[in-house]
Each structure stands twice: as structure tokens, then as C-alpha cells.
Amino acid sequence: MKYVRKLAVITVSLGTIPLAAPAAYPAATPASGVSAAATTTVRVSPGNRRGWTSVAFDAATNADLKSTQSLVKGPGRPALGIGSLRYAIGDNSNRVEQFRTARYDGKRLASVTALKYSTWQRSVDGANPQQPVYLRLNIDYTGDNVMDEQLYYIPANNGTVLQRTWQTWNAFTGIWGINGDDGPQNDVTLTQYLAAHPNAKLVNNGPGGAAGGAVDFQVGAAGANQQNGRFFLDAVTIGFSGNTTIFNLEPAT
Ligand SMILES: [Ca+2]
Ligand SMILES: [Ca+2]
Predict the structure, then answer these.
(1) What distances in angstroms separate CA 212 from CA 77, 95, 233, one per listed residue?
(2) Residue 74 alpha carbon to ligand 1 centre in Å
(3) How far apart are CA 200 and CA 140, in angstroms?
């Protein structure tokens, strides 16, 4: 059941952005136990998935399905490296394919400083243009570690979707649906969401997939928009408190 939650538009700061020390002064040394902001690129491959799992379920029956996902070469020139994660959806428009991780569970939404990813997709039967992989975050805002809402970043609400073309989506600065996709007019920014739920944090589990995790790049359950299509994901970029990890999805070598 979709519903629309009205959120006050209040500007709040999404975390603290460290300022660079003036050139004339020596750079401050981080306090013990505090790591300096950094960006790290890691390779996700069949032999080392870095905490990411591929699961699938049927949205109509809630039955687990065998995932169709695989790490493959291409298509075209991926955002990073030579490959990407491939999802396949056939005739069953209730199939939901999830690429999830629990590695960020428990972290505060307010400390997110980067959320970005790249997509490519095509229709198999040519009947309908396909929509890109979307991003779902499971949120607890009451502090009991039980999910209250889900935030959905839907690329089509954030720009023009192209077929058979790599595109990069900046979900951190984009607009999000609450508990589904009610169109861009009802979406909120993370800043707006945090104004209403300042203690929001990422939480396991949410519907679908015994092996869960709050951060989930998924396809499916989108009617003809994600049916009989092939979908690809790469360059998943996630940052908290200025520390950013770029996951380069790659096939086995
Ligand atoms: Ca790649
Ligand atoms: Ca809760």
C-alpha cells in the first residue's frame, strides 16, 4: 500500500564536510581513532563479493527465487573496468532481483556523504523501454532497530533514462520515494527526509531475501517497465562521513 507522507521542507546539513587546512599552515593531524576522509576502490568479483549478496523473490507470493544475477564482461564500456553486474527479468514481472549488503547496517542516514551508481539496460522483446536498476534503503527512525520505512531512488524521477547506454545517477543529491514510487512530485531529498527523521539509520532486513542488508540495488516488480529486460550495474559508490568506497563490479578473470 503506497502512501504519501508530507514532509516539511527544512534545510539541514547532511553531515560535516571537513575543511582543508590553509596552505600556509600544516594540515591538522586527525585525532587518534579518527580516520581522514578517503576514497577507496575495491573490486567485486565472483571470488570475492566484498559482502554483497545476490538474492531474488516473487513479490506476489513472497517465495524465494533462484537469483539470475551474474558478474559479466560489458556491456559496452562499463563505468569502471571491463564488467558489471547483470540482472535478468523474464515474463514474471513479480520477480525482484536484489543486490544487497549488510555492511552499512546501523549507520546513520545523516552521515551519508556519497551515494552514486551507474546503469545500462535493454529490452529483450523490444516491447517496452526498460527502467534502470533502482536503489532501496531500509530505514529505522524510531531507534528500535526495526524497519519503519523504505526509501526508493528511482532514476526515471531524477533524469532522462536512455536505453543501451551507461548512465550515472547521483542518488545522494537526488529525490526519493517513500515506500515506493509515487512519482517525482511526491519525492523528497535526503535533506528533507532527515529534517522529519533526524535519527534515521540503515537497518536490516525488509521484505525479500533471507540474506538482507539495508542497502539494496534492485530490479523488478515494476510492471512492464522491468519485464523481459536485462539490467546492468557498476561503479557503486557509497560514502559515510567522507570515507567513500567505490565498488567496481567485475567478472572472474
Ligand atoms: Ca566494472
Ligand atoms: Ca523502527
Answers:
(1) 30, 16, 18
(2) 8
(3) 6
Cell numbers at 79, concatenated? 563505468
In 3D space, the residue among 207, 107, 108 whose CA is nearest the CA of residue 149 turns out to be 207
Show me where the domains of the chain are located. Answer: 39-249
Q: In this structure, which ligand is nearest to the CA of 82?
A: 1
Dihedral of CA atoms 180, 230, 159, 152 in degrees, nearest 10, equals 20
Q: Checking DSSP bridges between strand 149-153 and strand 134-140, what pairing results, if any? A: antiparallel
Positive or negative, the Cα torsion across 68, 219, 3, 105? positive
Q: Is residue 154 pLDDT above 80, yes or no?
A: yes
Say what the pLDDT of residue 80 is.
98
The topology (CATH level 3) of 39-249 is Jelly Rolls (2.60.120)
What is the value of pTM for the model shown?
Answer: 0.85
